[in-house]
Amino acid sequence: MKDRLRRNSEAGSSVKKYAYIFEENNIKLSDEQYEKFSVYLRLLKRWNRVHNLTSLDSEEEIVKRHFLDSLSLARCFEDIGLDPNGKSIADVGSGAGFPGVPLKIYYGNRIKLYLIESSSKKCSFLEYLKVNIGEEYEVICERAEETDIKADIGVARALGDLDYTEEVLESIAREYIFIMKGSKVEKSALNSLRAYRLNMKYLPKLYILWKRIKGQQDPRELKT
């Protein structure tokens, strides 16, 4: 598998030339992880010619606004004291795999990942990607409102209406939900969600809204 991964990564652009983007944000990746991100980048660009998976063309922008942005959740987990080891994560409305697949590359077997996506073309990409990067995750090709999948943590990028996104994630997550929001947060959202302000180089100052599902202990209260 490693030889195949190396051949795939060498066939296209290498994400390792953008290592400074991760390193300056104290995100440490192994050579194998860089190879997986390189394969991801190459396949994303190839499939994007036909299937419109992302509006970004620049490799550097893809690395920043997709790969690094996805890994900002790992920074959020760390800062609020949430240990994802051994937990299952559902990425709702995964699209081309963001933020779920970068999190899987980062955490590896420490997490179980579900990608919930209603577009059959995007699901095909996610299945093809899984084989080529050698990561195990489950693609659920159906609408989030209709799935019976349950996970410890539910995450989502923008799904439109914030109340709708929160409701869908709560129907799936057992412990925590995280919503990757823009630069503005309505005051009404803070009635039920907490706001984590993202401060990472090469990314705009955005917010991640999060919530502990009722009955779960706040991870910060576990520290003694």
Would you write up a description of this structure?
This protein has one domain: Vaccinia Virus protein VP39 (Rossmann fold, 3-Layer(aba) Sandwich), CATH 3.40.50.150. Helices cover 40% and strands 17% of the residues. It contains seven helices and seven strands; from the N terminus they run H-H-H-H-E-H-E-H-E-E-H-E-E-E. The chain has helices spanning 2-10, 19-23, 31-51, 59-80, 100-107, 120-133, 162-172, and strands at 87-92, 111-116, 138-140, 151-156, 173-180, 194-197, 207-212. The protein has a seven-stranded mixed β-sheet, with helices on both faces.
Q: Could you name the key traits of this structure?
A:
alpha/beta, Rossmann fold, 7 helices
How many domains, in number, for the residues? Answer: 1
Q: What oligomeric arrangement do these chains adopt?
A: single chain
CATH topology: Rossmann fold
Helical content stands at 40-55%
| Helix-strand category | alpha/beta
- Rg, Cα atoms, Å: 17 Å
Average of the residue pLDDT scores: 90
Assigned CATH class: Alpha Beta
Number of helices: 7
Low-confidence residue ranges: none
Please give the CATH architecture: 3-Layer(aba) Sandwich
How would you spell out the order of helices and strands? Answer: HHHHEHEHEEHEEE
Strand order of the largest sheet: 3-2-1-4-5-7-6
